[in-house]
Design goal:
3 helices, 2 domains, YefM-like fold
Length: 81
């Protein structure tokens, strides 16, 4: 997302809150050219924590079973003991 310097001047607090809430950087432009960027610190912890299977889906992965199911058959599981 990009906003102009003038818009940043008028809406600074809401812009900072948006970066804090979403974790996404915002480019600041002057006359259409990016002159600065507001971004969360590298050590910031995301407010939204996805479950492992949600992360997998987000990355384009495929789940072989539901979250509460096992993909290993009982026979195979016993053989691994």
């Amino acid at each position: 997302m990009a906003i102009s310097v003038t818009q940043l001047k008028n809406d600074c607090l809401s812009v900072v809150r948006q970066v804090e809430a979403t974790g996404q950087a915002i480019a600041i432009t002057r006359r259409g050219k990016v002159v600065a960027r507001i971004a969360p610190p590298a050590t910031a912890v995301k407010h939204v924590t996805l479950k492992p299977w949600e992360e997998l889906r987000k990355l384009g992965g495929h789940l072989s079973a539901a979250a509460d199911e096992s993909v290993v058959r009982d026979e195979d599981f016993e053989a691994l003991r």
